[in-house]
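Onboarding guide, step 5: your first structure request.
Type a short instruction followed by the sequence, for example:

Predict the 3D structure of this protein.
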Amino acid sequence: MQIGNQTSVPHFILVGLHHLPQLRTPLFLAFLLIYILTVSGNGPTYWFLCHLSFLDMTISSATVPKMLAGFLSDSRVISFGGCVIQLFSFHFLGSTECFLYTFMAYDRFLDICKPLHNATIMTHRVCNYLALGSWLGGTIHSLFQTSFIFRLPFCGPNQVDYFFCDIPAILRLTHADTTINELVTFVDIGFLALTCFMLILTSYGYIVAASLRIQSVDGCHNRLQRLGALKKV
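The system replies with structure tokens like these:
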């Protein structure tokens, strides 16, 4: 495989989890059970939850099956293309899930804080656009990250000191200067995660405040009812 004028390594070797040989079967069974529960435990009952369930199943499938195969055999080789696909899939699904959590938090905010306006704001068309925006945002984010990493030359070591192809482990295998890559990756992923987290936190902050106001009003109403009952007595 050619990148520029330099020959790239044809495959990578996933070192995986560091464990004793006698633990291979127990670890395989443990992760297999977790994987099965993850895949089978997502029955969608709601529009956004439908997408979230699919993401939970596929994000596990992007990394776990290859790790399970490594427990059963000594071969932990993954092709260069397979490594690219694995890294892209993991970040694509992860960032899409991050966007989806943010939109779900906004939907909950409308349900609790603006119940009379929720039906007019979160129409079926808007929900479709938000879901589509989550997938498009995840695609753009992951394409940028993947292309930015694999434009580097990989001509030397090919042992990935991790159980799947992820950015930090892959960057350690190139002889090129990765300072810019590390900085851009940190800023990009950090900005995405922090922005989604702050938006979710803000939404649930408003929800908690609204719930406290409702409880306060209910408490005042109950106290007035009790006072009225005492006066009648």
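Each response can be followed by summary notes, for example: The first strand starts at residue 2 and ends at 3.
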